[in-house]
Design goal:
alpha/beta, seven-stranded parallel beta sheet
Length: 341
């Protein structure tokens, strides 16, 4: 089966993202795909014939080669190379859990600190077989991540409605947010706007070295808020990656997880390799505490939506009951659970 040039470029970008390649390398292929989509197919074929693809903005030697090979009915060499080197399973194990997941409740777009438009995140989620994806761009306080003001979030909700109208009934983009947990445990967005959302992930992004008792109060207050559905990357640790390493925050995990269990707030199993949060010992404690869970990617690019495999492996290995993983639930059940009461 031949692959269309745009699909080849998108697939290459996806594979580079899931293998944690540099943003610069990925951007060239996504930009080339955008360029092709903006011109008629007849012009693309004519430029391939004349060898003038590189005259187009955003098309360089590497991307031109991909387009020319795909247009000729060949699998592009770059795509073949990536499929053979990084196209296989990201991790061994976790397949049984992954097969039961229906979606992902933590993702970012270029509205905050993600690298791709909302539409591209949606397209990749649908290609992965998700029934739903929560768009959780950051809240206003996280200015370093271009957090959404109330006005921008309101605007984004209209975009989400338009996308859902276009994709039909087989997929749902959920109105959501990754809202900062402020120092006192309150949430960094108005109650009025939070009530308009389908899902709310609450995370600590500041003062990660706060004294243990104060951090415990902060987190317990947040997870007991009826509008909080998921406690995101609870320790804030970084174990690898370009951002370096960061020690986990200290808090009374027993108290925090007990509050999660009592309030029906899910503990996120953050699947990003650099986070792998919570660590195994705390994840085991959360299981024993009776918590619900959400196996999320925290994806900042389409290819990172495949990171869910890492979280599924950990969940399967440590014995997380799949029926307690909220994103294994059908959409109606998920939304009913997530509605503040």
């Amino acid at each position: 089966m031949t692959i269309e040039p745009v699909d080849a470029l998108r697939r290459i970008a996806f594979l580079l993202e899931r293998s944690r390649a540099s943003t610069y390398r990925v951007k060239a292929y996504r930009q080339a795909a955008d360029t092709l989509l903006a011109i008629p197919e007849a012009e693309v074929r004519e430029r391939v014939r004349k060898g003038t693809l590189k005259q187009l903005e955003g098309i360089g030697p590497s991307t031109a080669a991909v387009i020319e090979q795909a247009a000729a009915g060949r699998d592009p060499d770059k795509l073949t190379e990536l499929e053979s080197t990084v196209g296989g399973p990201l991790v061994e194990g976790g397949e049984q859990v992954r097969d039961q997941l229906r979606g992902d409740l933590h993702s970012h777009s270029d509205w905050s600190d993600g690298g791709s438009p909302i539409q591209e995140m949606v397209a990749s989620a649908m290609e992965l077989g998700h029934d739903y994806l929560a768009l959780t761009d950051h809240s206003p306080r996280l200015t370093v991540a271009n957090g959404l003001t109330a006005a921008r979030l309101s605007q984004q909700l209209k975009v989400v409605d338009a996308i859902n109208a276009a994709v039909g009934e087989d997929f749902r983009l959920l109105k959501a947010i990754e809202v900062d947990i402020l120092d006192d445990g309150s949430l960094d967005q108005t109650d009025e706007l939070l009530d308009q959302l389908d899902v709310r992930v609450a995370s600590v992004h500041s003062k990660l070295k706060m004294e243990s008792a104060a951090m415990t109060r902060r987190m317990v207050t947040a997870v007991r808020n009826p509008r909080t559905n998921v406690l995101g990357h609870c320790t804030g640790r970084l174990v690898t990656g370009d951002r370096g390493k960061r020690a986990q925050s200290t808090f009374d995990a027993s108290a925090v997880f007990a509050a999660c269990a009592e309030s029906n707030t899910a503990v996120e199993i953050n699947s990003r390799p650099e986070r792998s949060d919570p660590p195994d010992d705390l994840l085991t404690l959360a299981i024993e505490s009776g918590c619900l869970f959400a196996i999320n990617t925290d994806a900042h690019a389409p290819g990172q939506l495949d990171f869910q495999a890492y979280g599924c492996e950990r969940a399967e290995r440590l014995g997380v009951p799949v029926e307690r993983v909220v994103n294994s639930w059908p959409l109606d059940q998920l939304l009913d659970w997530a509605t503040p009461s």
